Amino acid sequence: MVVQLNGKKVELAAEISTLRELLASYQLQEKIVVVEQNGDIIDRSQYETTPIADGDRIEIVHFVGGG
């Protein structure tokens, strides 16, 4: 399946079917992130059950601390 991830077309591995699995594949599942799917911000509690479909537009913003 091909999605647009942060503005770039990306082919996802076959085992990635939910937002939680997508975040895990980028090792972001434990980080503070905001996920937007097709223009809608998805609540963190819904990552496990929110499916990803071919052609979805997904934006992931994660925060980096610093000083």
UniProtKB/TrEMBL annotation:
Pfam families given in the database record: ThiS
InterPro entries: Beta-grasp_dom_sf, Mopterin_synth/thiamin_S_b, Thi_S, ThiS/MoaD-like
Residue intervals passing through the bilayer: none
Domain of life, per lineage: Bacteria
Protein name per its UniProtKB record: Sulfur carrier protein ThiS
